[in-house]
Structure formats: structure tokens, C-alpha cells
Specification:
The chain is mostly helical. It has 4 helices and no strands. The protein has a domain of 42 residues. Helices cover 53% and strands 0% of the residues. Helix 3 packs parallel to helix 4. It starts with 6 loop residues before the first helix and ends with a helix.
């Protein structure tokens, strides 16, 4: 297993982050994630994980706004 943390592990290990996961993330926060991390987040939410990075971010932002 690589030394990289999954997106969800990162949130669990950093409870003092300046943003709250329950309030969603801004696009700048999503921009910091890799495509694989975005796909993992989408899969965890039961959303399609196909497309380029910009499409994945747009899908997550759309889900956050809903």
C-alpha cells in the first residue's frame, strides 16, 4: 500500500481543517485532490466517477449544492 492517504482518511485525521466536510468543500479544496482521490470521494457518495478531473469536481460541487 502506498504512503498516500485516501481523501476520506485525510479528513478523519485532520479534524481541525478550516472547512467542515459536512458543509461541503469549495472547488479550491477539490482542486488539491488527485483524480484518484476525487474518484474515491464520488464512489463513496454513490456518484459516477467517470470523466476528467474538471468533470469530477463539477459533479462533487453539484452534489454539495443539492
Amino acid at each position: 500500500m502506498s504512503g498516500r492517504m485516501s481523501a476520506s482518511s485525510r479528513y478523519k485525521q485532520n479534524p481541525d481543517e478550516s472547512f467542515s466536510r459536512s458543509l461541503g468543500e469549495s472547488s479550491s479544496d477539490y482542486d488539491e485532490l488527485t483524480k484518484a482521490e476525487l474518484e474515491e470521494e464520488l464512489e463513496g457518495r454513490g456518484l459516477a466517477k467517470t470523466g476528467n478531473k474538471a468533470e469530477l469536481i463539477a459533479r462533487l460541487e453539484e452534489a454539495d449544492a443539492a
